[in-house]
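Researcher: Dear colleague, please comment on this protein.
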Amino acid sequence: MDDEYRAVTATLNAFYTFHKYQYDRVVKPKAIKYKSLSSEEQSLLPWYPDLLRDLTQCIEINKAFTQELAAAAAQDWGVPFEPLQWAEPSASEYDKVRSTLLQISREWSSDGAEERAHTFRPIIDKVCDLIPEAHRNKTRVLVPGCGLGRLVYEFVKNGFWTQGNEVSYHMLFALGFLLNRVPMAYSHTLFPFIHTLSHVKRRLFQVRPVTIPDESAHSIFSGPEKESDKLVELMSMAAGLFVDLYGPSGLAESEAYGQDASAIEFRSENKDAFDVVATCFFLDTAHNVIEYLKTIHNCLRKGGKWINVGPLHWHYEGDLTRMMTQKVEPGQEPVSIYTSMEGLELSKDELFVLIEKVGFKIVEHTDGIKTTYSSDVKASSKFIYECDFWVAEKI
């Protein structure tokens, strides 16, 4: 079993057996705790057995969804549906399924509408202001780190040719299912909040359902056949690392940037290829933000616009995981060295200077945009991000 097949099947297996993980993490500890109480203490919590029953039922409903998703993804990716032969998932892969269910709520349920209004809406509105409707089907938009594809879908719905880019198998499997396999709105039910034990105002909020999708992606293809065909042609997806697929030539070879022929060819095709790059909660996922900026600059045409919404919550801060990369100096042979994932966590002021040095002009900037991310709207406490919105032009 090669590494890629192992990664694919471990992710499929994480979705397929997620109910076991949920039971072990959510129900089992509570059942053990309850049994450890004295009879008198148990009598003070007469509702607790009902809670265990409700949580178990929620897990069974989640199981129906995650197993349907796993079966569809296996078929779409050409993997034999033999779960017993799939690679064993790690705890991290199960946790990513948990966060994927929260992401589904964020992108494809009415619970996530407010977050989308604070993040996706400013991006869509700005691009619609910049591009007249008559020119939109000729305007090429790239959405790196597109997650579950809702922002891609919104661009296509507004008439733009849009390509989403995503590297996470968890996200790719889920977005494929939501975009291609769910023709009706409000057709599936999830319980994404049963892992959340803190800041719960009412127990029913923890076990409440989220019905998805609030809008079926198929809805924009329900018009006349010719118009539907045109819309289908406006959407595409590219699976892989952003820098590897869209970066300029000459970056340091690393785990994120290879030199195989297919990657080199794809990168050459995408040079100066896009009119708009739209990033949302993406920039701070970089372990080398310089490479991200160079890549955005490389794939935009001259005068093209980079539109961003997000915080600077650097994902690799404190991550001392080592990775192999190359140090590249003009006129010298590259030197292979080890480096850590963290180390380029810039302040906003430093980042803005760097953006201009790479070859952009910031033409619009708004800060202090407050929003949550994949949060429970019913929770009594939420983590609030203060985000920046900007439009930068390639010069």
Q: What stands out?
A: The chain has a mean pLDDT of 93. DSSP finds 14 helices and eleven strands in the chain.
